[in-house]
Amino acid sequence: MFDCAKDVLAYHNEKVTLPQAEQTDMRNRRNANRDRIKKGLSSAGKPAPREFVVQGSYAMKTMTQHPGKDYDIDDGVYFHKEDLVGERGAEMSALQARQMVRDALDDGSFKKPPEIRKNCVRVYYEAGFHVDVPVYRRVTTKNLWGDDTYHYELAASDWKRSDARAVASWFEAENDRQSPDTGNGRQLRRIVRLIKKYARSRDSWKGQVLSGFGITKLVTERYRADAGREDKALYNTMVAIRDRLRGSLVIDHPVTPNETITSGLDDARARFLRDKLSEAIDNLAPLLEYGCTRQQALKCWDKVFATTFFSERAESRAQAGASLLGVGAVAPAAAPLAFPKAPRVDDKPRGFG
Q1: DSSP state letters, 198-221
Q2: What angle separates helix 294-305 from helix 268-283, to the nearest 10 degrees?
Q3: What are the tens digits of pLDDT across the range 178-206?
Q4: What is the full DSSP assignment across 8-25?
Q5: Cβ count within 10 A of residue 323
Q6: Does residue 337 surpass a pLDDT of 50?
Q7: Among candidate residues 216, 166, 196, 184, the one with its CA nearest the CA of residue 71
Q8: Model confidence band, residue 125 (pLDDT cutoffs 50, 70, 90)
Q9: Where are the domains of the chain?
Q10: Which one of 37, 122, 314, 352 is most buried, by most CB atoms within 10 A?
Q11: Maximum separation of any 2 CA atoms in the chain, in Å
Q12: Dihedrals φ, ψ of 280, to 5°?
């Protein structure tokens, strides 16, 4: 396979992973929402949250750049179950808990008011992204030995046993276990980001392709590590995922038993991803052929990601090289070259670094 490892890594670093400025902006907005919730609940005489926990791609650090800044940040708010009591002393329903959080968030500062969704409260921003605030309760029970034990429940259509922190812990363990490196987020995480970037590379695919969570799970199942070749790790993982989806479109949830990320045996979004991965693999076929040139290889990667990044990278290098040659051409006029009487013998191999 023609070696474009440095180019694929450069694409990840410059066009895929989130810039620090955007990460800081998201963190500031997240913290502002937390302050709104605490202040709003206190003003309304409602129970204080026991904690906030980031989750989803934000917690797993697998978010990718989007030109329209269409980002989805998940920041869960957790309460003690015994604190979630209605006005008449009855246990709060899942809907009432979400309404309570929505009311606390709605301080009048948003152009579009926070909205109650099926599994969360959503806060919209004019910048293009939104923050989802799932509401959880911590349920404490006694085990057989009389000791306290607890689990978490999500306020969905009803209270549903769930804790997104387990997902983040699962992914970190997989990233640590499978990646051959330790820097730059580690390779498995980078491959997740790159395939998620591919899945969002065309606006027309939105709503049709598998979720980022589904892609993350598939990468952990079929990741093909390659410490020295980022491009081969990406290509081989794409092939392995495509072949896996040819066998089954069902994707199991990584931490919740008997639950799937996909819907049914013929999930349309998983099928769409499988077909688009086949297209990407076909587009990269010239890289496997004898005689493939660097220019041809980079155009293939451009086609996969619907970008001009790779070809432009090659052009900028060529221009830089031409500029250096130009400087060298005028050097003799300024300082005539002097040649030694005897040839110099190098004691080590030399070349361009």
Answers
A1: HHTSSGGGTTTSPPHHHHHHHHHH
A2: 160
A3: 999 999 999 999 999 999 999 999 999 99
A4: HHHHIIIIISPPHHHHHH
A5: 10
A6: no
A7: 196
A8: confident
A9: 20-162, 167-283
A10: 37
A11: 103
A12: -65, -40
Task: Say whether pLDDT at 347 is over 50.
Answer: no
Task: Name all contacts of 256-264 with Cβ < 8 Å and 24+ positions apart.
Answer: 256/162, 261/211, 261/213, 261/214, 261/217, 262/210, 262/214
* 178 token code pair: 């499978």
20-162 to CATH, choices 3.40.50.300, 3.40.50.720, 3.30.460.90, 3.40.50.10540: 3.30.460.90
Which letter, b or e, does each residue of 188-221 get, where b requires 16 or more Cβ atoms within 10 Å of its Cβ?
A: bbbbbbbbbbbbbbeeebeeebbbbbbbbbbbbe
**183 token code pair:** 């820097």
Closest residue by Cα to residue 41 from 77, 88, 95, 75: 77
Token pair 């086949």: residue? 278
Which two structure tokens, joined as six digits, stand for 267?
Answer: 């999930």
Q: CA-to-CA distance for 176 and 183, rounded, in angstroms?
A: 11
CA 304 to chain centre: 18
pLDDT of res. 322: 54
Alpha helices in the chain (DSSP H): 5-11, 20-43, 56-60, 94-105, 165-178, 187-199, 212-222, 230-247, 268-283, 294-305, 309-334
Closest-CA residue to 87 (of 76, 77, 96): 96
70, 41 Cβ separation under 8 angstroms: no
How far, in Å, CA of 77 to CA of 52, rounded? 5
Encode pLDDT of 130-166 as tens digits: 899 999 999 988 777 878 888 999 999 999 988 888 9
Q: What is the pTM of this model?
A: 0.85
Mapped onto helix, strand or coil, the DSSP state of residue 268 is helix
